[in-house]
Records
---
Amino acid sequence: MIIVMSPQASQADLDAVVAKIRAAGLTEHISRGSERTIVGAIGDERPLSEQAYEQMAGVERAIHIVKPYKLVAREGHPAGSIIDIRGIKLGGKQIQVIAGPCSVETEAQMQLAAAGVHAAGCRMMRGGAFKPRTSPYAFQGLGVQGLEYFQAAAREYDMPIVTELMDVRMLDTFMAHDVDVIQIGARNMQNFDLLKEVGRVNKPVILKRGLSATIAEWLMAAEYIAAGGNNNIILCERGIRTFETAYRNVLDVTAIAMLKRETHLPVLVDPSHAGGKAWMVPALSRAAVAAGADGLLVEMHPNPCEAWCDADQALTPQELEELMASLRLIAQAVGREL
Ligand code: PEP
Ligand code: MN
């Protein structure tokens, strides 16, 4: 951290800053300019608080030099991470399209959905058994019964499953049902106790971006998971809230480029919750792959008109197949494969 003293700072002010740096176990480096003195705090500066220094007498500003996130930062881990999900690699050359319904509804719906996901050439499946709904009166998900329908349908095709964990009390159940990838939804991105718990298990985690989360907040949320020892983290951009009301959210394509620079973690894009309309999904998917996303999380329903949740944005099995065909060409153009 760098502490900039004000031009009026006294020697006593400077001494107090130095004493505080030493008390934290760091050493000081003092640089006296013609107008100001600058003090560098040498050592692990992450635990130091800028505010704690800025409210000291004679201090003008305190600025962290290193990034607040460490384990997820690309600077300490130049190669991109590849997450292994039961032998399927996410983050490597191959792009993974994870498709399936918004929510698990019935056994038959899941069987049809799994057949459609597999037929389209996808290797992993999504589906929510616990649903974060805006209204408490809306369908909340089938719960554990949903996990069972989902696991049985996906295992027919040997596809790993991705499903959302909302409540830390269900983590043991998720482990017992051998959920392959735990999804932390947008609304829980900063549920720090939940993040700490999934940080302790040995399961890949998809961390979706909060509705209005900055990149730094999102990466700090990922850092919580990594700090617990779980490095199998996948980020998922799912659209952010802006002033625009013509569509559900704005897909932040810029975030893909930014994340690729800032972190070694793989990046997924959810075009379904971004646009909120099925007809937008192909265009947003193509943009995501072209921009460097490592995969997509796409909603597909055997019969979208009948979907219990997010009917507007679900692709049909046929549309998913067409999407996969068009993505193949984009993937090739950017040196990837599908
Ligand atoms: C979902 O993927 O089912 C979901 C609820 O998404 P989000 O958390 O991004 O809103
Ligand atoms: Mn949904």
---
Amino acid sequence: MTTSTRCLPLALFALSIAGRSAAQVVPLIANIEGRSTTSLNGQWQVIVDPYDVGALDYRAHALKGNGAFYTNYKSQSKSELVEYDFDTSGRLNVPGDWNTQRDSLLFYEGSVWYKRSFNYSKGTKKRTFVHFGAANYMAYVYLNGEELGQHEGGFTPFTFEITDRVRAEGNFLVLRVNNTRSKDYVPTVSTDWWNYGGITRPVTLVEVPETFIQDYSVQLEKGSTRQIKGWLQLNGQQRQQKVTIRIPEAGSNKTFQTDAAGRVEFSFDADLTLWSPENPKLYRVEIASETDQVTDQIGFRSISVQGTEILLNEKPVFLRGINIHEEAPLRSGRAWSEDDARILLGWAKELGCNFVRLAHYPHNEAMLRMADQMGMLVWEEVPVYWTIEWENPNTLQNAKNQLGELIARDHNRAALIIYSVANETPISDARNRFLGQLIQEAHSNDPTRLVSAALQAEETKNGNRLTIHINDPIANELDVMGNNEYIGWYVHNIADLDSTDWVSKYDKPLIMSEFGGDAQFGKHGDAQTRFSEEYQESLYEHQIAMLKRISFLRGTTPWILMDFRSPRRTLPGIEDYFNRKGLVSDHGEKKKAFLVLQQWYREKAKNP
Ligand code: GCU
């Protein structure tokens, strides 16, 4: 179960009563970094289990007893049969995908068991939680031989309360992580990115007081540049408390009282320097209750739309962006660290960007906090990608859960301005209903941000002129339209870009959320030679000329910053299982087209 911020009080009340007995995924604790924590990162013992013999018997019934790997059972005598042993089964790094840590696991899809032993001296009158940044795709979690619960979705965090289960010595935390793809999952079976499996983000033990500050939102009210509007939610027995929100640098110090459900909504005026890419001002915000306190670095900015304009701090802005996959720069595999984020956003800054589209799933929290610090506006997306099972209620609930977890984690990040609910999904009534619900979910969960989706438009031809029509019905419900086009690569020729016009049925801003073509770094030829840097360079020159002619264009995120692994790219000697549409190679080498886009963005920064 995942809980969106709207129905938190009830769920928390139930859990703060029940939490000490039956464990399950609990609502996310905001700002894990700002708490007292113990990292469980490092080398974990693993068992690769392609046939799930650690979970199922030969009749595919759930295994109980010593044969189940989560019991970490050791044979008690020389004659006792035990056919697994974490201690002699090898190790993998956590965080980290398993695919790039062992050649034998590069293409592996299935289960891997992880075990981490630890001692833990628990503080008195404290509660303990274990927090996972993410694990792809299904995670089944056990502590000391008992099930804690499971989580579905490879790109969002999850937490379990272990207060009554953790012991001073000899704890063993066991996960079965399975990245097998399935039609009813989100994403579904076909994607153009590598299905990295494993515990891909940090694992942390979090210690908090018996009644603690579960979550809070401290942001500017929609449409205001002075009024802070937010809420705070306590978790625990002592629900009615005095709480204070202090912003020392702004001379703001406000006190409020939580209600019987441990919740308070507040609003107050403050004189703030607004956050922007040019001036990413973050304030130290001190949030305290009678029993707990947490500090966060928060920026304040307003984001809205007006006709075809996107307004940042009430001024029109052009989003000079680039797409990024969560691939580690220079070493491949899943990115997860501050260093990874600093390098990737550093390259985007070098390009002249003020915006990035984090494709096609929620990236790690370090990326969002780095975007806050470096001044990079962010589009975040849930992996509703291509052909999802639109009629399947579980698939819809799964997509809603992932969106809810994304919002719960990042709703205090100034950099984050757009939630995207889909990428290149075929128009149908079922799809429209599905996306319509996700759009509503995003707006009701967080009315302060914009909602978009990467759509695909229709084209008509008149003589040699192409007209692209943005008329997808779902755009009606979006704040900002995104559109992916590959004119000059998958369709038509580069020259056709010079005679292509765009029309939109909607009085809304457009972000060209994807365009581009492949080039292998160092491969040279004329502008007609596929996969040469010159082809990609020419493609960008003609794309940019066309984009400049679109009157309602308010942003661009070319596909893509860096070459990334994809199982769909098999061309030997050129692709070798990499999508080569990056402007930077997977070794950090800049291609010619990088300079073309950089030049445009520098011009655009001067004359938006
Ligand atoms: C698609 C898709 C991307 C993909 C890209 C490509 O439009 O959204 O995920 O990688 O095009 O084909 O390179």
---
Amino acid sequence: MASYLEITDDEKGHELSLFCVPKHYEEDLDRVIIPHGLIMDRTERLARDIMRDMGGHHIVALCVLKGGYKFFADLLDYIKLLNQNSDKSVPLTVDFIRLKSYSNDQSTNKVKVIGGDELSALTGKNVLIVEDIVETGRTMQTLLSLLTECNPKMVKVASLLVKRTPRSSGYKPDYIGFEVPDKFLVGYALDYNEYFRDLSHICVLSEQAKEKYKV
Ligand code: IMP
Ligand code: MG
């Protein structure tokens, strides 16, 4: 079982005015729930755990855009540091995909992979999928079943966040940064209708902001 840093339901977070938050978002956020520095510290440790398990063979790191891009970039920086400062190292290549989910029928959640190289490039490789947040887990489970068709040597999933929610299918990633309450979170590339990716800390979106940025 993956270990993670638990942010409990009664965690109050931190007052916005104690941190640097873009002026244009000051009215839209309730509290800072995970400051940027804590994200970085936890990510550094995940990099070490990943290299321990996957560092024996060529790793293909697969970024799930757009929400995963910050975590992906920072995680890979830490993995690169480990690679360049140890006597043992493995090649690390990258790829970027987007997932389009069709959930007209709730029971059969289909996911379409957009962009990226041919999935056959993953055959025989150690594949690390990097995602921002797992909620029900259905997106990731569908992607995993697609990827296993290309016969990778190993597939692991790293998700910065996992939401504690009754909607969960029970799926858990192999590497988890934080387990978070069932609230809508933004920042560090997580968005609400494309806004808030340009915010360093992970924050709780206010109810009035949900209305303001509704499409
Ligand atoms: P699921 O695990 O298939 O339910 O889907 C997870 C996806 O929903 C993530 O990749 C996000 O794009 C999105 N998502 C879920 N919860 C949040 C949130 O709190 N903030 C931003 N995006 C979220
Ligand atoms: Mg995502």
